[in-house]
Specification:
heterodimer; A: 224 residues; alpha/beta; Rossmann fold; 2 domains; 3-stranded antiparallel β-sheet; 23% strand; elongated; B: 308 residues; TIM Barrel; 11 helices; 8 strands; globular
């Protein structure tokens, strides 16, 4: 899923403070699962904003609205009837959601309440970690199912740097060395000999380096 | 000969090589690096010129290599993958070769987190093995990585680093094999303090005959103080310093600390020379270049051989 975390409250309050009436828009997908921007977080954040405005003796009306997905127009349009008098929409969806809402409502200011961080997994309650960078050219079959691009701090494709110690990355004691994980799994699978195959210079055109990406599947155009 | 490198000539002649290190200054002073090179002149066959090591901004490796060369020392220009993509790297390789720089050491590069610009974006378009392969392609196939022909190819002696002590240990010999397969001509290792562990690695290397395919220079560094020893033992990623060495430094009286550091370094060199497959020493006396002639002399590495 897309993992995000809320911006510091004071930052959010600073963004919305110039407005008298805002909509706080949550999203029912990834950010609900990672407890950053679902219906529950909308309720809590809305209350905090109201209380803070009251303390500052400011008028701040917060309209709460959580839709199923902020990345689909059909759901975004559900927000329309609630937009009367709304000066700004504070989205606590991911960066894609914030932008898609902005595209749909050209005359309303849209503000981000989250920092969208990575594609990852829930490792434990309250702990999420990165697994994928969406490079557009998956190589997991070559690296025993562990991604060196996402999990090595230097995205090295031919093995660990000299800074791997006791299974940890030199960058942080909390970060497992991606290549240690790859080698461990290659050993467990009995395919460590594959490590010696040289991975040539990567073609990054399918990644962000090739410019904003687009997938267009004609076979789906006609499906309603 | 693949290049005009003095280091290559020494190694190809079967002589035991000695390389040093010249860290570029944190400024535009041409004298700083020339002074360091002058201290090494005659005591080493070539000197590494680091490329923004520990991700701290310094004079460029290429710029400083030219000063080193002017001072009469054969520079080993270091190039890291952290700061440049393949376009900039190939461009710098051509520029360096055009100025007569003949050695290139290909490295991943320390993460920017450790440096003075931790908020920087890193590049890592290539990794060190892909960089080695690219330089080899430029030299031997006279082609850019993109496949176009190079008019005058860069004649470089290609180096790589290896850390026998980093984890996972299981792939440390295979990783060397990959670097050789990619095109490395010589290897400089991480600083060695744990001789036993290094011997284990070298046994793995010689068992596969890899020492016949690449020149391995064993890395050493003298301790200036027990604090320096302890810092290396505990704070430097990928360093393996046995506690006994730190204790020996700690036990030395303050006025004898440097001498003890030199003693240890000379002893390590003597032990490393005896290990089959070791073809030279890479002596990293960082910010202590003036000690290099003394260590080289005491280790029996002077005079340096004359080569054509």
């Amino acid at each position: 899923m897309i993992v995000a975390k809320q911006k510091p409250f004071e930052t959010i309050y600073g963004m919305v403070a110039p407005n008298k009436r805002i909509m706080l828009a949550g999203c029912g997908s990834c950010v609900t699962v990672c407890f950053a921007g679902g219906e529950k977080e909308v309720g809590i954040l809305a209350s905090l904003l109201r209380m803070r405005a009251q303390k500052d003796r400011k008028d701040l009306d917060v309209v709460e609205a959580t839709i199923k997905r902020q990345c689909d127009v059909e759901f975004i349009d559900e927000l329309k009837p609630k937009l009367d008098g709304v000066e700004a929409i504070l989205s606590i969806g991911c960066g894609a959601g914030v932008q898609y809402i902005a595209e749909r409502f050209g005359k309303t200011i849209v503000l981000p309440g989250l920092d969208t961080t990575f594609l990852g997994v829930t490792e434990a309650m309250g702990v999420w970690t990165e697994r994928c960078q969406g490079c557009g050219d998956c190589k997991l079959h070559l690296t025993a199912g562990v991604c060196p691009i996402a999990r090595c701090s230097k995205s090295l494709l031919n093995g660990p740097c000299g800074g791997s110690m006791n299974g940890k990355c030199e960058v942080s004691a909390d970060t497992p060395c991606g290549w240690q994980l790859i080698v461990d799994r290659m050993e467990a699978l009995g395919i460590l000999d594959r490590y010696e195959q040289i991975t040539p210079a990567n073609d990054w055109t399918a990644s962000r380096d090739g410019g904003p990406r687009r997938i267009d599947r004609e076979d789906l155009h006609e499906i309603k | 000969m693949k290049s005009n490198s003095r280091l290559e000539a020494v190694l190809a002649a079967g002589k035991f090589a000695l390389t040093g290190e010249c860290g570029p200054p944190r400024g535009a002073d041409p004298g700083a690096v020339a002074k360091k090179a002058a201290l090494l002149l005659g005591s080493v066959d070539a000197a590494n010129v680091t490329d923004n090591q520990t991700a701290v901004v310094r004079m460029s490796s290429m710029g400083a290599s030219l000063h080193v060369k002017s001072a009469g020392v054969d520079p080993i220009m270091q190039m890291v993958c952290r700061d440049r993509n393949r376009i900039a790297m190939q461009s710098d390789i051509l520029g360096a070769a055009s100025h007569g720089i003949s050695n290139l050491l290909c490295l991943s590069g320390d993460h920017q987190k450790f440096g003075d610009h931790p908020t920087a974006k890193n590049v890592f378009d290539l990794d060190s093995i892909q960089l080695i392969a690219m330089v080899k392609k430029m030299r031997d196939e006279e082609m850019f990585l993109g496949g176009e022909k190079i008019k005058v190819a860069p004649k470089l002696f290609i180096g790589a680093a290896e850390n026998p002590f980093a984890h996972p240990l299981a792939i440390r010999v295979p990783r060397l094999a990959k670097k050789i397969a990619a095109g490395a001509d010589f290897i400089q290792t991480q600083c060695i303090f744990n001789i036993e562990q290094f011997q284990k690695w070298m046994k793995g290397v010689t068992d596969r005959g890899l020492h016949e395919k690449v020149f391995i220079l064993a890395g050493v560094t003298p301790f200036k103080s027990w604090r320096a020893a302890e810092y290396m033992a505990t704070k430097v990623p990928g360093m393996d310093v046995p506690a006994a060495l730190v204790e020996r430094m700690k036990g030395a009286p303050k006025e004898k600390a440097k001498a003890t550091g030199v003693d240890i370094c000379v002893e390590l060199i003597e032990q490393l020379r005896e290990i089959p497959g070791v073809k030279g020493i890479h002596l990293m006396a960082i910010e202590w270049e003036e000690i290099v002639p003394e260590i080289a002399k005491r280790a029996g590495l002077l005079p340096r051989p004359e080569v054509a």
